Amino acid sequence: MTVLDTPSVARSSVTPRRDIGIKRRYAAERRFRLYGMLAIALGIIFLALLLWSVFSKGYTAFQQTTITIPVTFSAEIIDPRNQRETDPKILQAANYPLLARDALVKALGVNPSDRVAVRSVSALVSASARTQLRDLVMADPTIIGTTQTVTLLADANIDSANKGQIDLSVAETSRKVNDRQLGWMKQLSEAGVLQKSFNTGLFTSGASSRPEAAGIGVAFVGSLYMMLIVLVLALPIGVAASIYLEEFAPKNRLTDLIEVNINNLAAVPSIVYGLLGLSIFINFAGMPRSAALVGALVLTLMTLPTIIIATRAALKAVPPSIRAAALGLGASKMQTIFHHVLPLAAPGILTGTIIGLAHALGETAPLLLIGMVAFVVDYPGSPMEPSTALPVQIYMWANEAERAFVERTSGAIIVLLLFLVVMNMGAILLRRRFERRW
Amino acid sequence: MTTSAIIMIIIGLGIVTYLVGRARAVTLSQGKLSNMHSRPVYYGAYAAICAMLPALAVLVVWLIAAPIVVEKAVKTSLSETTQEISVATGNLTFGTVRAIAGGLTKLTPEELARAKAGEINLREILGARGVPLASETDPAMVAAAEDYNALNATSRMAMTGVVLLVGLLGAAFGLRRIAARFRARNGVERVILVALIAASCIAILTTVGIVGSMLSETLRFFASVSPSEFFFGTVWDPRFSAAGNANSAGQFGLLPLLAGTLYIAFVAMLFAVPIGLFAAIYMAEYASPMLRSTAKPLLEVLAGIPSIVYGFFALITVGPFLRDLSANLNGLVTGNYQSFIQAQSVLTAGLVMGIMLIPFVSSLSDDIITQVPRAMRDGSLGLGATRSETIKRVILPAALPGIVGALLLTASRAVGETMIVVLAAGVAARMQLNPFEPMTTVTVKIVNQLTGDLEFTSPQTLVAFALGITLFVITLCLNIYALYIVRKYREQYE
Predict the structure, then answer these.
(1) Same structural domain for residues A177 and A315?
(2) Count of alpha carbons within 13 Å of B399, Cβ hemisphere only?
(3) Which of A136, A180, B12, B355 is the most buried (most CB within 10 A)?
(4) Positive or negative, the Cα torsion across B234, B235, B238, B244?
(5) Taking the CB of residue A132, how many other CB atoms lie within 10 A of it?
(6) What is the spatial distance between Cα B430 and Cα B433, in angstroms, rounded to a whole number?
(7) Helix (H) or strand (E) segment spanning residue B184
(8) Which residues contact B463 (CB under 8 A, 6 or more apart)?
(9) Of A267, A275, A410, the CB nearest to B468
(10) Is B416 within 8 Å of A271 when comparing Cβ atoms?
């Protein structure tokens, strides 16, 4: 080597270095690296943009403007002919918005005969005041004739204005809140009547055509039912299927078919599962449309492949020595698996299950097809009753035109994302805490 | 007795049998468990299985069979009295009878007697009690409804009796078999094995269900629209016209939808593939462990965000942004501030879908690149190639089949994606090449055709299943081919 090297070194010192394009090649190398870094940066920037866009639009949804005023439940308005003893429908159909309007007119000191002003005043309060006051009276008819302090929701436009979301530089005629209303708002908030408070309605209410009264409570209950049923069905079935495929199945055509099948099912578009649910569960088996049960069954079928793949990986990771030891001590194959292999694989299985559930929680498309795009106002009492789900509620709100619904939608997305974060964090923690490496 | 009560009783019976069986085994062993073939729990479990399994099986069969039998009996008695029932009106009448039967329980005995005599209008009364009826009733229907109720009650009584009897017999049988040399564990394990096999067959059943249900609905669709019109038609105009309108035949051309689907998927891949691939290469070949352990999970967060959130992002943020951007660009160049990108467009949907697909491309390709053997890398570097040259000339060619597989899997996801395109791509079905205009996809039309009230007879709704099976076949081919390539690739380097 040395003998051969010496002359070449000597020669290279004489002749100029052959140009092998080192500079160009290094520049290319740097460019290539830069592309890689750019790609990662772009990905992270997109993530940041997405989250920023949702959070910046949605964080205000957790606050709500309310108006707390004394409302006189005058008998002349609710029940002018004093028929409520005989005809209970009177209380249902009474002109409750008038009560709220009169209370505000009194609080603001507006001349009650100024019709334009009075109309502007009644636009301050949400139209949901009707149901709110009606429910109060229906629950306790003795309050008729008394004056009660009631907290009413402000109208969505007033809410937006109060949160500073309405551009006040626009001409008065082309914005939804006029200058007079703004003046009243100022007057009311100085008096402590108009306040911003935590928006509990967002978490308890159901669907509503009025953004200020709409909430995700009902949709959340629907999602909860579905997740529970999915968990109860998909986890045992998925684990059982994986145990058979991983531990018992002979290598033959049938098991090969099942394997290919499961891998394919994991990649089938979710909307196809919706079609399956529609034609089999609803059309063929006659289950009710919009029911959480049907949604849960569809999501179970959709989640199963994910759980099976995760469980099989977890079972595979348990070293054969454990099985050999158990079998050697006289355990049957079934005992080996259920007493030794399965507990060791449990963290991996649970992680896979949580990730599968998180996926199911955010899934929308199949639920649209089985009729969960429903305007559901009441809490579903059982999984058989019409209900809707969190992502479907988001979808329905996203289709609404009003500005205030954008805020609500973003708020609902924040809630959904928080749930997903919690579930995924749980999965990660579980893996960190319990996963064993052999 | 309600079904759930019966199930609870069976479960209770099972628990009791289990406890008794176990205790019996312990007694039989005379204090020395090794006298027995199996451990006591297995004897208990065996007895419990004997008690529960046949009873539950009878229950299920009964629940499925009984309504059919009752329906048949009531229909024959109805047709004997009314004489004029064809199949279609028979079904309608039977529906009314069932509704009346549900309503009769809400009537007082006095009202019931008058209703049977035909003196009062049952439809009004039941309507007031929250039971709407489709048509007017006649006394024959009321009688049939009573029959129906009576038959159902008898069937339920008989079912309760038979199921409980079977349960008790099973329990007795199971308990009697407990003996020192009886192989209870083998029996229990056989049952468990059968359950495991049944669970793994659900995967096959799902596929069979998907294919079978969609195929049957699609065939019904093709009965009214010819397949060639569907597969080669260039106009999509399903025409939800007023019911009963004679010329309500719409046009169901698949091609504009397919064109939109593929175009949007193509635009999405145009964004996702370079970014995802470069990210994967950097992650696998250059990144320090620190960067890798932070950037990789961050990118994977993108995959965990539900597609409805992307759809909303496209609708509220990206679409308007692109529209305003194009208006400003147009204004700068021509002085005419008019946007040439529409808020709902191929570009909007493709861009956002591309963002969603980045993590799929990057993590799949990352796995594949790291599987390329170390020796190939070292060989190339040892010959003096720079890292990027090694990647371009050695690693990527070696990983190419795997990467192609990964890209096909991603493409199948892009084709099947629904929520983004529903919110961001528009509903106009047309064939054109301008990415700034809205187009629509197969998935959007499935959703459009199937939301709202529907009847399963019109081609307007059945077409969704034809679209669905088209989508299924496309993604299935992509998936099978991709999985095949990836598997082949793995074997190559293992």
Answers:
(1) no
(2) 27
(3) B355
(4) negative
(5) 17
(6) 10
(7) helix B184-224
(8) B221, B225, B230, B238, B252, B445, B449
(9) A275
(10) yes
Q: How far is A29 from chain B (nearest CA, A)?
A: 5
Q: Select from B36, B262, B53 the least CA-distant residue to B170.
A: B53
Query: Could you give the C-alpha distances from B75 to A188, B62, B132, B392, in angstroms and in order?
Result: 69, 20, 21, 76
Provide the Cα torsion A294, A296, A298, A301; round to 10°: -140
Instruction: Count other C-beta atoms under 10 Å from residue B484's C-beta.
Output: 13
B413 close to B442: Cβ distance less than 8 angstroms: no
* Distance to chain A for B17, nearest Cα, Å: 22
Token pair 């199963």 in the structure block, residue: A304
For residue B181, give the DSSP letter.
T
ipTM computed for the complex: 0.87
Q: How many domains, in total, are found in chain B?
A: 2
B484 vs A: CB within 8 A: no
> Could you give the percent of chain A with pLDDT greater than 90?
35
CA atoms of A272 and A302, how far apart (whole Å): 10
Q: DSSP states of B87-149 as a string?
A: HHHHHHHHHHHHHHHHHHTTS-HHHHHHHHTT-S-HHHHHHHTT---SS---HHHHHHHHHHH
Whether residue A144 is found in the same domain as residue A237: no
Residue B134 and residue B207: Cα distance in Å, rounded?
Answer: 38
Give Cα separations from B54 to B41, B169, B191, B285 (angstroms): 20, 10, 12, 61
Residue ranges, chain B, pLDDT below 70: 79-92, 106, 115-125, 127-138, 240-249, 452-455, 494
Answer with the one of A145, A167, A199 that is the final residue of a domain.
A199
Residue B422 lies in a domain: yes
B318 with B178, same domain: the answer is no
* Residue A416, CA distances (Å) to A350, A411, A412, B60, B299 in order: 21, 9, 6, 38, 19
Tell me the residue range of the domain where A128 lies. Answer: 59-199
Quick one: closest CA in A to B449, which residue?
A: A369
Taken as a whole, chain B contains a residue count of 494
Taking phi over 0 as left and psi of -120 to 50 as alpha, with beta for the rest, B455 belongs to beta
Lowest pLDDT segment from A188-197, A211-220, B307-316 = A188-197
Q: How far apart are CA B195 and CA B184, in angstroms?
A: 17
Q: What is the residue-averaged pLDDT of chain A?
A: 85
Q: Are residues A63 and A109 in the same domain?
A: yes
A399 lies in some domain: yes
Q: How far is CA A119 from CA A95, A114, B145, in A?
A: 15, 9, 55
Rounded to an integer, what distance in angstroms lies between the CA atom of residue B73 and that of residue B69? 6
pLDDT at B91: 64
For residue A176, give the H/E element and its range.
Answer: none
Q: Are B365 and B406 in contact (CB under 8 A)?
A: yes
Smallest Cα–Cα separation from A183: which of A112, A113, A98, A109?
A: A109
Handedness of CA B122, B128, B132, B135 (dihedral sign): positive
Whole domain around residue B153: which residue ranges?
3-182
SS3 A394: helix
Last residue of some domain: B150, B182, B214?
B182
Report yes or no: B456 at the A interface, CB cutoff 8 Å: yes
Please say which residue of A199, A231, A254 terminates a domain: A199
- Let me know if residue B227 belongs to a domain: no
Whether B281 sits inside 8 A of A36 (CB atoms) is: yes
CA distance, residue B489 to nearest chain A CA (Å): 16
Residue B279 domain-assigned (yes or no): yes
DSSP three-state, residue B8: helix
Residue whose structure tokens are 């990415």: B435
Q: Are residues A153 and A230 in the same domain?
A: no
Element (H, E) at B477: helix B459-492
Mention every residue, 6+ apart, whose C-beta is less than 8 A from residue B4. none
